[in-house]
Specification:
The chain has helices spanning 7-14, 20-34, 46-57, 59-70, and strands at 2-4, 39-41. By secondary structure, the protein is mostly helical. The chain is 66% helix and 8% strand. It contains four helices and two strands; from the N terminus they run E-H-H-E-H-H. It starts with a strand and ends with a helix. Helix 1 (7-14) runs parallel beside helix 3 (46-57) and helix 3 runs antiparallel to helix 4. It has one domain.
Amino acid sequence: MIIVSKASVILRWSLEKASESDQVQARLFQDAILTEQIEIRLPTLWRFEFGHVLDLRQPELAKELLRVLLT
C-alpha cells in the first residue's frame, strides 16, 4: 500500500516534545515503512516544511537531521 504523508509525521520521529500518543502512532507508522508493509510518498515541499519547523524547535540539530534525512 502507498501512503502520502505530511511532513508532520517525520517531525514526530525527530522531535521529543510531541505528545506520547502522537509519538506512538508515528513509531507504528515508521515500523510499517521499515518492514515494507507500506510505502511512503511525501509532497515535494516536505523538505522545506520539515527544515523550517526543525530550525525553529531544534536549531542546534536541524542541519544534521536534514543531512541524514536527505541522504
